[in-house]
Amino acid sequence: QVQLVESGGGLVQAGGSLRLSCAAAGTISNINSMAWYRQAPGKGLEWISKISCTGGNTAYVDSVKGRFTISRDNAKNTLYLQMDSLKDEDTAVYYCAKYPSCKWSVRHDSWGQGTQVTVSP
After folding, report:
1. What pLDDT digit, counting tens, does each position of 2-21 carry?
2. Backbone Cα Rg of the chain
3. Distance between CA 7 and CA 72 in Å, rounded?
4. CA distances (Å), 21 to each of 9, 26, 67, 87, 91, in order?
5. Dihedrals φ, ψ of 12, to 5°?
6. Rounded to whole angstroms, how far apart are CA atoms 71 and 98?
7. Helices marked H in the chain
8. Which end of the chain is more exposed for a tag (fewer CB within 10 A), N or C?
9. What is the distance between the terminal CA atoms of the chain, rounded to a whole angstrom?
10. pLDDT tens digit sequence for 44-94
11. Residue 42, by phi and psi: left (phi above 0), alpha (psi -120 to 50) or beta?
């Protein structure tokens, strides 16, 4: 099982930017589609974005469209989430997840430990 490790979270003022990284301890290049989720305080897990194996196809939840950008560097086995124009409601623990193949299925077979993003007013 491929281990995923997120980094890049922190405290940022509203309107600011952060870039999250998700490093895979093992190859994910052209093998696995990937996704980002988040869980805000007192709320359930929310899917926010996904990317295909090659990075050619992406999708976003409406609340982050135009502000967040998902990308991947397959040579480095790393997934990214660039977050711009951050809002208070983006405060959450962010998780990356791996699909078992290039298909965007419902099931994930690996999750990271999460990284905290806190947006201050």
Report:
1. 899 999 999 999 999 999 99
2. 13
3. 14
4. 9, 15, 16, 19, 17
5. -145, 150
6. 14
7. none
8. C
9. 39
10. 999 999 999 999 999 999 999 999 999 999 999 999 999 999 999 999 999
11. left
Question: Residues 62, 96, 80, CA angle at the centre, nearest 5°?
Answer: 75
pLDDT bin (cut points 50, 70, 90) of residue 26 is confident
Q: Which residue has the tokens 């809002």?
A: 87
The C-alpha atoms of residue 30 and residue 60 are separated, in whole angstroms, by 20
Residue 23 burial (10 A CB sphere; 0-12, 13-18, 19+):
middle
Task: Assess contact for 64 and 119: CB atoms under 8 A.
Answer: no
